[in-house]
Amino acid sequence: MAGASGSIYAARFIRALMEIPGETWFVSSPASVRVFREEFETDVQSGEDILKFVTEKWGPKQVHKFHIRKFEDIGADIASGSNIWDGMVVVPCSMKTVAAIRTGITENLIERAADVTLKERRKLILVPRETPYNRIHLENMLALHDAGAIIAPASPGFYQMPKSLEDLGDFMATRIFRLLGREIDLYPRWTP
Ligand SMILES: Cc1cc2nc3c(=O)[nH]c(=O)nc-3n(C[C@H](O)[C@H](O)[C@H](O)COP(=O)(O)O)c2cc1C
Q1: Which residues of 79-95 are buried (b: 16+ CB within 10 A; e: fewer)?
Q2: Which of 75, 76, 79, 107 would bridge with 69, disulfide CB 3.0–4.6 Å?
Q3: Range of the domain at 143
Q4: Gene3D superfamilies under this entry (predicted)?
Q5: Is there a domain that residue 189 lies in?
Q6: Tally of domains in the chain
């Protein structure tokens, strides 16, 4: 999680990940924790707190392995391509993290792991949120697209009449899972 608005997208994606067999390495930037605090009007202080918040709020049926890694720990396992993971998602993704990944200036574990994901030709899915975009944002995202990343903006559809923030989060989570190669319908498919 990077520090863009849209904590609900991360929260609902995390909730679904908890129920799906597999392992997740979870990193949250200090800015993302702050935004989460504001957007859920809660007092989370860390990645651990965010996972606890999600579990308590939505009570996933089962909780699969979540490995929490520290944002500052550029020596963590996921800082090296010698460890294997299927893909990486930055949700939500700030323009600052977009810029860092684009330039390869990787000063924290999110940026480093994204850099590794790209160099190892694994799936990197970025869910940016900003409006409007300036030329720098657009150029950075285009360069990342050309380098193999998938830019999946946080822009849920409204044609299925979402009733809640959870619905909007689940729309995005479903799309992210599909990009990762997993067909998980958290939200109904469109039927004309
Ligand atoms: C309440 C709040 C909302 C923010 N929303 C956005 C946003 O939607 N998009 C964005 O690019 N940055 C946003 N920011 C700014 C980022 O948090 C800031 O650039 C930060 O340095 C990003 O660091 P990180 O990418 O390492 O998390 C927001 C900051 C705050 C406090």
Answers
A1: beeeeebeebbbbbbbb
A2: 76
A3: 7-69+83-179
A4: Flavin prenyltransferase-like (3.40.50.1950)
A5: no
A6: 1
The region that residue 59 occupies, defined by phi over 0 for left and psi between -120 and 50 for alpha, beta otherwise, is left
DSSP state of 79: G
29 is in an annotated binding site: yes
Give me the amino acid identity at 129: R
For residue 5, the CA-to-ligand 1 centroid distance in Å is 7
Does 116 reside within a domain? yes
Residue 190 lies in a domain: no
Residue 161 known to bind ligand: no
pLDDT category of residue 64 using cuts at 50, 70 and 90? confident
42 falls in which pLDDT band (50, 70, 90)? very high
Would residue 46 count as lying in a domain? yes
32 is in an annotated binding site: no
Contact criterion met (CB below 8 Å) for 107 and 71: no
| Residue 5 in contact with ligand 1 by CB distance below 6 A | yes
Domain CATH code at residue 21? 3.40.50.1950
